[in-house]
Amino acid sequence: MTHTERPESAASGHPRMRRTLRWLAVIVVLLLVAGGATGFYLYQRFEGNIGQVDVFTTDILGTDRPTKAEPVDNQAEPLNILVMGSDTRAGQGRGYGPEAEITGARSDTTLLVHLPADRQSALVVSIPRDTVLDVPSCKTQNGPSTPYTDRFNSAFSTGGPGCTIKTVEQNTGVFIDHFVIVDFSGFNDIVDALGGVDVCLPEAVVEPKSGLDLPAGTSTVTGDQALAFVRVRAIGTGSDIDRIDRQQAFLSSLINKAKSSGTLLNPVKLVRFLEAATKSLTTDPALANLNEMRRIAQDVRGIPPKDITFVTTPWLVNPDDPNTVVWNEKKTDALWSAISNDETYPPAPPEPTTIDGKPLTVLPSAVPLRVLNGSGVSGAATTAATELKAKGYSTIGVGDAESQNFISTVIRYDEAGADAARTVAASIPGAARVLRPGLGTTVEVVVGDDWPGATRVVVKKPPSVTVRQATDNICKIPG
User: What is the pLDDT of residues 173-200, one digit of tens each?
Assistant: First the structure.
């Protein structure tokens, strides 16, 4: 694909925001445990900083919403929180006012944060802004909008967070419980309150338009440099997908910094961080209540960074416009289904089959396999080849062996095909492996009187989607 424009999605505040919510609530818990007038004052002060917009009404989202996953075995309810980065803070404050105040603002960042019922992990999904989707009719200042197909971030401009939520729900089938808007103007203060965040660049970048000026390797960024790092496009290919990868690395770094920087134990840092974080937030009224944040935080504060997974919605270049993308439906359907049903994503791969104490490394489909009849029973090789094909093998020939007196089934191979022969041996229990120089990469199965049949094997494969854990090295290149 060309790299003139790949979709843009995670601008700067989002996943950090999600994590900010968690740490914000944890900090508030500590303040309230301390008790006293100061704690109560700070509680009211910080809660009052959070803006509110109520979009979870039938006139905004309608009545045809996805089914919400129900908790089981007395667990907490699964939660899906949509986090949006915005370049506006109109109506800042507790009385944020109608949603119309932020209609028309731009949102280049959207994250769907899934907290499973067991609260043992968290999944953060970046939705590229340039994904072409169907945008439903939304409530606006001028009445209902007309449904249309366009870039995903146009929904926020059309009808604010309500339209974005409605678009997400109707395209994914995922029920949204809460939303958070993070304004970019407060992002710098949050990073500064933590004392900066470490980032990594493969090469030095000096970009006058954004003001980014950083050397190659690891740097600690604060203020405008931090915001420029997560928003600038003049790094690497300049694509929006690359920018999402960079933002996910930044958020991972921020998570680890928030957990290890001593913020929770330093009263000055604590208040500065809370002030910056809460002033940057607009949420639905239920989440704006710090008691609700505290409840969520108590549920999830034990999640280690290694179990926080970042993923970008699987995408393909839009054949009608290379500057936009469309979803890889097979993969995104699996993603949305996992979230809707509160299942692990990506799903844990099956354990690979082992032989000789080691896992298999060659897929059955990659084995050049010849099947020979050594049993004297007419059609034995054809029958065996059919069974092996059903287990994923592609045979390159079927015939008779040099002898029809094979009592035992044998697998013959050259050293060049040793790993392939291990795969075949795992599929034919009890068959002996015999080294035969000259076969090259071809593996021969000589069917004997004891042909046991073929079984399916599992070979370890790379994941079908690219993921990042919050503990991954910030210099890691996805893929």
Answer: 999 999 988 876 677 787 888 888 899 8
Nearest to 197 by CA among 157, 228, 151: 228
Residues of the chain with CATH 3.40.630.190: 14-349+465-469
Q: Which residue has the higher pLDDT, 77 or 48?
A: 77
Most confident of 2-6, 174-178, 208-212: 174-178
Select the CATH number that applies to the domain covering 354-447 from these four: 3.30.60, 3.30.70, 3.40.50, 2.60.40: 3.30.70
Tell which CATH classification among 3.30.300.20, 3.40.50.720, 2.70.70.10, 3.40.630.190 matches the domain 14-349+465-469: 3.40.630.190
